[in-house]
Amino acid sequence: MVDVVTAASDPLLDALDDEQRVAAEALLGPVCVLAGAGTGKTRAITHRIAYGVASGAYDPARVMALTFTSRAAAELRARLRALGAGGVQARTFHAAALAQLNHFWPIVVGGSAPRVLEYKGRILGQAAERARVKVDAATLRDVAAEIEWRKVAGVGPEAYATRLASRGAPGNLTSDQFLALVDAYESLKDERRMLDFEDVLLATAGMIESEASVAMHVRESYRHFIVDEYQDVSPAQQQLLDLWLGGRRDLCVVGDASQTIYSFAGASADYLLDFERRFEGATVVRLERNYRSTPPIIEVANRLMRGRAGALRLEAVAAEAEAVAARAPVAAQATDAARAPEAPRRLPAAASRAPAAGAAYAEPVIIEYPDDLSEARGVATRIRARIDAGAPPESIAVLMRVNSQSAILERALEEVGVGSRVRGAARFFDQPEVREAVHALRAAALTIAGEPLFKSVSDVLRALGWSAQAPDGPGAVRARWESLNAIARLVDDAPPGTTFRTFADELRARAEAQHEPTVAAVTLATMHSAKGLEWNEVYIVGLTEGMLPIAYAKGLEAIDEERRLLYVGITRARRRLELSWPRQGGGYRGEREPSRFLQELGTRTRNASGGAATARARRGAPA
Prior knowledge:
Layout: H1 11-14, H2 18-25, E1 31-35, H3 41-55, E2 63-67, H4 70-82, E3 89-92, H5 93-108, E4 115-117, H6 121-130, H7 137-153, H8 157-167, H9 175-191, E5 194-196, H10 197-210, H11 212-221, E6 224-227, H12 235-245, E7 251-255, H13 270-273, H14 275-278, E8 283-287, E9 289-290, H15 295-305, E10 315-316, H16 329-339, E11 345-346, E12 365-371, H17 372-388, E13 396-400, H18 406-415, E14 420-422, H19 432-445, H20 453-463, H21 476-493, H22 500-513, E15 522-526, H23 527-530, E16 535-540, H24 556-570, E17 573-584, H25 596-600, E18 604-606, E19 612-614
Parallel strand pairs: 1-7, 1-8, 2-3, 2-6, 4-5, 6-7, 9-10, 12-17, 13-15, 13-16, 14-15, 16-17
Antiparallel strand pairs: 11-12, 18-19
Helix pairs in contact: 2-3, 5-10, 6-9, 10-11, 10-12, 15-24, 17-18, 19-20, 19-22, 20-21
């Protein structure tokens, strides 16, 4: 008989706040957790799963936790293992679907499942030749994106024909050329027994829908489903989830409509916002206590999203120890302003919430720069000053709208002797020195035993050129050292008693999941790639009309998506937030306008001489 743990005494629940605890105790039936940025949603759902396992309500082998990136799935698995629920499956939608497809294909169809196409570019180029359509590389990328969108959005032929008629085909293609290219692409895949990434979802759903034995087996295997980041679910993923459930109601979803930033890829917050209607009697829990950011940052985020559909009003409850300790804020900001090309203008303080006793919060600032180069150098100079004041470089991020903005920032940071790494460029475990280190560590772990873990690891890394002392200055040598040093630092995070063999095996598992360690460098990232991450200090650059919102964002829905993207950027910051925009540059003639979103924040400004001035209104900006 299962020894049921009582909720009143369970340490898994004692670690949660009141709202998180309500979510964790709602183990059965439909549950919707509306979780704002920084409110501890991952903590809440992992403790909920662990409590369900510990109490006997869940068989861990029949629980499936779903998310959208391999990194997020790896984090869920690590947390669940630490909470004693390591038997629970935590996967992306695609990984779960692919596992089922590989299992059932030989039974239902016969033979091995088709190979999954990792990159569409080459086969699309061959399809273009077959269809006798001339296209360049950029157009092929747009064709690939259009194929992906159509499949995950579940758009039928008639609706898609209407879309093509109104929006046109990618690049300079006519509708007929585009359709011929797509037909040739699908034919080549069929001839070569290949599926693309999106086909995996559709084929798995089709197999469950058409084969009663497959549906019965899947539904017997998994009883309880938990979906993280539910605002990012696409119609194709929702269809598959509905088939997995088979009419049952043991589903818990967690999401935040204000962080829906992948609509262009088929994501829809409608499933999150309509959850109560679709599941009558569902338990709905709102997590609005933000444990990440200081009150002034939270106030800015709330002001940006005020009145928007599904927006949660965050409540800043960051502990004093986590608040920025700018003991002399006026003097400190005066020093920072003197270092920058332009004086910063503060956003209004959070009037309703005073700093904790003994602590002072750095107010978010907006800085106007003459041009792109001045902005890059100004941000780099301010970051250099923060590092000189003791801020670790890995605790700082510069966020931007598009990847092309990173090059000038990399150069500016290098000029002031600050190392940086671009998130979304070469992935950590794909770097040659990292692949070499992983291979060498695994090989050495087969023969070395009985030594202290750090000695074993450091000996292998020293043979590859690592040293305990960092080389001077930025550059390729320093970048290589930082990568190897990030592996060395993982020893500090290893549980006591970890063997060299275990360490090497876990490093390989991290590599397969692309679960990257921390590298001591400033992060440069787009706001899309920053989702799910956080830093002590965040600098958001290039906030002009045409960049954010991006020039091709037309209509209210597209503009709202750009607003949510800025919200995601703002809520990545724990202690310090700076936003900036250049008056000139970026290929625009004449002066650029500040982003309408900055205008909506109700900012006031100080001019370069320190006198008060009113922020320039953006001409013709709609509310």
